[in-house]
Structure formats: structure tokens, C-alpha cells
Specification:
- This protein is mostly helical.
- It has one domain.
- Helix content is 96%, strand content 0%.
- The chain contains 3 helices and no strands.
- The radius of gyration is 39 Å and the shape is rod-shaped.
- The model has no long low-confidence stretch (mean pLDDT 81).
Length: 156
């Protein structure tokens, strides 16, 4: 009986060993499947993030172009206004001189806006603030004060 028990014990050990091996294989396959799924999710997330970034870039570019176009249109409108001032105001005397000066100033400003567009004007303002920081700060404080007064009086 001891030989039979030994044989049965050996068979049980082999079956347990085979079951353990199958369990290890199953765990290994499960780990590989999880790893592949994680890689797929990571890749998909990267693709989605890239697509969102590209779309945001396209939208920003479109908005920038529209702002530049609008700025050019404002410049053109200012030049048209200058022409109307010239046509509809006196041409001689003190009033004629003043109206020509106003029309020329509007026309020059229109050319500036049309030529520089929004990005060029931002660069010019940035340079002006860098060259004159104290007056720019004082102007900013003054404008902020005036806006605060307007807003506080409108609430009352």
C-alpha cells in the first residue's frame, strides 16, 4: 500500500505542478494582455491629445487671421472717414486748416493700423512701454482709476 500511496502522491504532485504551471502561464498571458491594453490606451490618449492640440492651433490661427483682417478693415475705414472729413468740411480759413489737420491725422492713423495690423501694434506698444515704463505705469493706474469710477457709479 505504501507504493500505491507513493504513486498517488507523485501523481498529485505532478498534477499540482502542472496546475501551478498553467496558473503561471495564465497569469503571464493576463499580464501581457493588460500590458497591451495599457499601451493601446496610452497610444489612443496620445493621438487624442495631439488631435486636440492641432485643432486648438488651427482655431488660434484662424482667430489671429480674422483679427488681422478686422484690423486692416478698421484702418481702411479710418482712411475712408478721413476722405469724408476732407470732402465735407471747409477748405479755406482757420476751420479748413483744422479740418485738414484732423483728416490728415485720421488718414495717417488709418495707414498705420492697416500697415502694422494687430501684431505690429502690439509690438509697438510693448516697445513704447519698455522705453517709458514710469509714464506707462502712471497711465495704467489712471485708466484703472477711471474704469473703477465708471463701474462704481453705474452700480449705484
Amino acid at each position: 500500500m505504501s507504493t500505491t500511496v507513493k504513486n498517488e502522491g507523485n501523481k498529485a504532485k505532478q498534477e499540482v505542478g502542472q496546475a501551478v504551471d498553467k496558473g503561471r502561464d495564465a497569469a503571464s498571458h493576463a499580464g501581457e494582455a493588460v500590458s497591451h491594453a495599457a499601451q493601446a490606451v496610452t497610444q489612443k490618449a496620445g493621438e487624442v491629445a495631439s488631435a486636440v492640440g492641432n485643432k486648438a492651433s488651427e482655431v488660434a490661427s484662424t482667430v489671429g487671421h480674422k483679427a488681422e483682417d478686422a484690423t486692416a478693415a478698421v484702418g481702411s475705414g479710418m482712411q475712408t472717414l478721413a476722405d469724408k472729413v476732407r470732402d465735407n468740411t471747409p477748405h479755406e480759413g482757420m476751420l479748413g486748416t483744422a479740418s485738414r489737420g484732423v483728416a490728415d491725422a485720421i488718414d495717417n492713423a488709418g495707414h498705420y493700423v492697416q500697415d502694422k495690423n494687430l501684431s505690429g501694434m502690439v509690438d509697438d506698444v510693448t516697445g513704447l512701454v519698455r522705453r517709458n515704463p514710469i509714464p506707462a505705469l502712471l497711465i495704467g493706474v489712471g485708466v484703472g482709476f477711471l474704469i473703477g469710477r465708471v463701474l462704481s457709479s453705474s452700480r449705484s
